[in-house]
Amino acid sequence: MNDFLKRFGQWGMVAGAAEGIGAAYCEELAKRGMNVIMVDVKEPEMESLAIRLEKSYKILVNRHMIDLSGHEAPDRCMQAMEGLDCRLLIYNAAYSRVKPFIAASPDELDLYINVNTRTPEHLVYLFAHKLKNEHQSGGILLMSSLAGIWGSRLVAAYSATKAFNMRLAEALSFEFRPYQIDISACCAGATATPGYLGTNPAKGFPGPNVMQPGLVAAITMKKLGKKTIIIPGFANRFNYFLLTRILPGSLSVKLVNKVMAKTYMGL
Is this structure's pTM higher than 0.90? Predict the structure, then answer.
C-alpha cells in the first residue's frame, strides 16, 4: 500500500465532482490508486467521468446524486461513506455568479450560504467526528479562492463565503492536529473551469493568470497535509505576496477591485 493510501484510506470523497477542478481531483485520486466517491447533481457529466476513471485507472467509483444546497446533504454524504475506508474528504462544490450584489435574488443569497458554507461546515464536523471516533488518520480539503482574501466587487457573497472556508481550515488545522487529521484550504486563482469560462471574462491585461484545473488539483494534492493554505501557481503566489506583504491593504483592495471592474466591464 502506498503512503497516500495508508494516510488517507482506500476511498476518497469529492463533493462537486462532475467537472472542472472537482473532476481533476477525482483523477488525481485515481492516479494514486484511490477509489472515489463522487457527489454531484450533474448526472451525465459524473457518469461519463466515472466510466473513464474506472477504465483508465482500474479503480472503483461510487456515484451519488446529492444536492449540496439541501439541509440533508451532509448526512447523505456521510451515508455514502458507510462501510468504506474513506478518510479523505474534498469539498469542491461552490455556488458563484458574477453580478452586482443587489442584482441577486433572496434564493441566490441562500445558495451562497448553503452550498459554500453551511454544507461544508456540517460535513467537516461529521467527518472529523467519524475519524476521531474510529481513531483513524485522515484529511480534509476545502476549496477557497483568492477572491476570499480580499473583498471583491461583483462576487461579494462568493468572496465572503470563500473567506469563511479559508479561516475555518486555518483554525481547525490546530484543533485537529492531535487527532492526526490534516485540513487544508486551496485558494485557487482564475481557473479554466466551465463556471469561470462561462462568465466571459475579458482577455488580456490586466486580466488574471488562468490555470488549468488539472494543474491546480495536482499541486494541491501534493501539498495536502504539508500546508494549511495552498495557493497553486507561481503567478498567484507572487500576487498574493505582493498584495498582502508589500502593498498597504487599502491599496491592494483597490487594485483587486479595479481588475475585477476591467475584467467584467459592463456589469
Answer: yes
Tell me the mean pLDDT in the region 73-94: 98
The enclosing domain of 215 has a CATH number of 3.40.50.720
Residue type, 42: K
Domain range enclosing 217: 3-263
The type of residue at 173 is S
Question: How many domains, the chain?
Answer: 1
Structure confidence by residue, pLDDT tens digits, 156-195? 999 999 999 999 999 999 999 999 999 999 999 888 888 8
Whole-number Å distance between alpha carbons of 223 and 177: 16
The answer to whether the Cα torsion of 226, 247, 94, 16 is positive or negative is: negative
Interatomic CA distance for residues 48 and 71, integer angstroms: 27
Please write the tens of the pLDDT for every residue from 15-68: 999 999 999 999 999 999 999 999 999 999 999 999 999 999 999 999 999 999
Name the H helices within the chain: 3-8, 20-31, 43-57, 73-81, 106-113, 119-134, 156-175, 194-197, 213-223, 234-241, 249-263
* Preceding peptide of 206 cis, ω within 30°: yes
Asked if 190 and 152 count as a contact pair (C-beta separation under 8 A), the reply is no
Phi then psi dihedrals of residue 161, to 5 deg: -70, -30
The alpha carbon of residue 5 and the mean position of all alpha carbons in its chain are separated, in whole angstroms, by 21
The cell for 236 is 498567484
